[in-house]
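Quick one, T. Sequence first:
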Amino acid sequence: MTDISPAPSVVVGVDGSSSAVDAALWAIDEALERDIPLRFVYVIEPTISGPVDPDDQARRLATAEVAVRYALTAVESTERPVTIEVEILQGQAVSTLLQAAKSAAMLVVGARGLKHATNGRIGSTAAALSASARCPVAIVRAHRPHAHAMRAVVIEVDTSNASSTVLHRGFEQARRRGAPVRVLTPARMYADVQAHWERRLAEWRNCYPQLDIAWVQMHGDTLDYLADHAASIQLLVTGRGRPGGIAPLVNAPGNAALRDTDCSILVCEPHNAL
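Structure tokens:
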């Protein structure tokens, strides 16, 4: 059950979990917006030791096919005109998904796989992918489009060159959702840097006049802001090169700030990967 396509696609990691189904549903808009396929990738990890057992291999392949069918049925039930491709691969989950997403427009994974079912906790596979993929990585906590209403897309920026990529992807996500935008910047900036950001935001407001765009100068850090406003946020858009790295957002501190919410995270690729 393999359909390999090197062409651009939105790759979705599936593993049979409900979180992976949420990821597949979340990814539909991404694929339709770009007019490219959704590509489901299931990875059969190798056995720890010992000779290959044909019966065990057959069971593992059957499990993979059931997991793919679970996600496929959910997407098909939406009756949206998205093309779906499927790959069932063997290897280590992280390295195999990274290879599968080498030419992807985006890699989308559920926040919690079958091995990490604790509510509110991002699994180790999603965390590792967000730190290494060359394409944007969306970590989807839940897919509840009717619950999002006027909840904001939050864009975290700094003074690095990558912020242009982060802003562009963040505003596009907000445009698609018709969501308000909150742009997070450091509280303390030199006057010339602040003036630069004010000009940049004026330009973005001209580009997206339909959006409610506000600039928030944080007096704590992003995790503090998320903890205080998590219920009003549907998506955090950030860059892989953020100060302090991605790890705090996708490991224990971020899990604590976003616990019991359905706020997803979009980690943008390094600017030199475009």
